Amino acid sequence: MAEGGGKIDPMHQFLVEPLFGTQNWSIAGYNIAFTNSAMWMVVATIVLIGFMSLGTKGSVIPSRGQVMVEGAVRFIDNMLAQNIGPEGKRYVPYVFSLFMFILFANVLGLLPLGVVGVHPFTFTSHFTITGVLAILSFAIVLVVGFWRHGLHFFSLFVPHGTPWWLLPVIPLIEFVSFMVRPFSLGLRLFVAMTAGHILLKVLAGFVVNAGNAGLGVGLLVGIPSFGLMVGISALELLVAGIQAYVFALLTSLYLNDAVNLH
Amino acid sequence: MPQISQLAATWASQFFWLALTFGIVFFVVGRGMLPMVQKTIDSRDRSVAADLAAASSARDAADKAEEAWRLRDQANREAAQTLVAEARQRATAASAATLATAQAEQAQRVAAAEVDIKAATARVLGEIEAVAAEATQDIVSRVSGAQVSVDEARSAVQAAMANG
Q1: Residues 35-74 (A) with a CB less than 8 A from some CB of B
Q2: How far is CA B104 from CA A150, B92, B118, in A?
Q3: Cβ-contact B11, A31 below 8 angstroms
Q4: Shortest CA distance to A225 belongs to which of A252, A191, A200, A198?
């Protein structure tokens, strides 16, 4: 972290580095090195599967873990039922996977594992990742929309009750707002994760540099900064949950547009 | 910003591993484990709903039974009250009849006794007359030396007794 004579680079944490000498792995000319990012995706997957395995025993009187898993399932189930209606059941597996994957990625990236020498990496702070997830959701919306409604899906761009004299303008605006969806979806998560992590790293830099500057400065600057870090860490946990929720919620809202066209 | 400066170098790797891990998540978690959890939730919800329905129908049955019991109880109470009233009436009638016969018998006995008393009084009066007449005869003979017949003495006694 501390590089170049006490300078702390808050961007260093986002660096993607190939691990275990895999930087030359490639398929069809594309590099697929197993990076720290990939490692945390694998970790998130394994932890998520481990978490879900708490809930698959199917006992009538649930254990604590099963209650947690069932709570998450109910949460996504209800969200889709409310936003899409009975049709929403079909999209629960995808939205649930999306929500839990992003949630676990965000939370795992926040764990203070640096204390034990492991460097956590939040892969949702890369827009390569969030962009792919956003495009995936957007593509599913498009496929569902055109599959169910055919070309009639284009009537999405003409909201109900549009006066005829606005017809030249409204579809254009609607089209732009529609095409912006994947960007807003992907960028929101990326920005939230990146900003929080930078903030934490900058405050951590304050603490370290103030400590190096002597006792007086260290106490004066270090302690408030550390206190702020504690607060912001709590806030970041909230943001980790909220961003996963927003991603899943917006996906379900867009799916609703595609399923229940007007 | 590594997200931008490394984009060209790392996007393929990121994409590959994301596709792999998210694919695993979707098929293992979303398609494999989620339905099991949902099945548990559904079966529990169903059994809870069934239990609630059973409880509410049991409560309805209990309410109905209580209502029926209340009606039966009321009917029984009314029947009992009629029975009591009837018994009371019968008892009153019986005691009235008994009383009446008793009174009649008593009246008869009283009448008979009065007749007896009258007869006895008459007899006693007759005896008193005879004794008084005898006594009178005796007294007259003793006092005056005159012999008075029984009939004379008796009529004198009768006259004295009639006067008190």
Answers
A1: 35, 37-38, 41-42, 44-45, 48-49, 52-53, 55-56, 58-60, 62, 66, 69-70, 73-74
A2: 116, 18, 21
A3: no
A4: A200
Residue pair A51/A104 in contact (Cβ under 8 Å)? The answer is yes
Nearest to A97 among B1, B26, B35 (CB): B26
Q: Cβ(A236)–Cβ(A196) under 8 Å?
A: yes
What pLDDT shows up at residue A2?
42
C-alpha Rg value of chain B to the nearest Å: 62
- Res A171: pLDDT: 82
Q: How confident is the model at residue B8 (pLDDT cuts 50, 70, 90)?
A: confident
Does pLDDT of A195 surpass 60? yes
pLDDT for B49 equals 95
Give the residue, B144 or A6, on which the prediction is more confident.
B144
Which candidate from B10, B39, B41 shows the least CB-CB separation from A128?
Answer: B10
**Do the beta carbons of residue A254 and residue A181 sit within 8 Å?**
yes
Contact predicate A255/A91, CB 8 Å: yes
ipTM given for this complex:
0.81
Q: Report the residue from A42, A55, A190 with minimal CB separation from B21.
A: A42
CA–CA separation, A205 vs A220, rounded Å?
Answer: 14
Name the residue in chain B with its Cα closest to that of A23. B13
CB–CB of B2 and A31 under 8 A? no
> SS3 string of A55-85?
CCCCCCCCCHHHHHHHHHHHHHHHHHHHHCC
Give the helix/strand (H/E) hosting A2: strand A2-3
**With an 8 Å Cβ cutoff, are A59 and B40 in contact?**
yes
pLDDT tens digits for A103-118?
998 888 888 777 777 7
Task: Name the minimum distance, in Å, from the CA of B63 to any CA of chain A.
Answer: 31
B31/A contact by beta carbon, under 8 A? yes
Q: Write the pLDDT tens digit of every residue in A45-98.
A: 999 889 888 877 777 777 888 888 888 888 888 888 888 888 878 888 888 998
Note the residue count of chain B: 164
The SS3 assignment for A26 reads strand
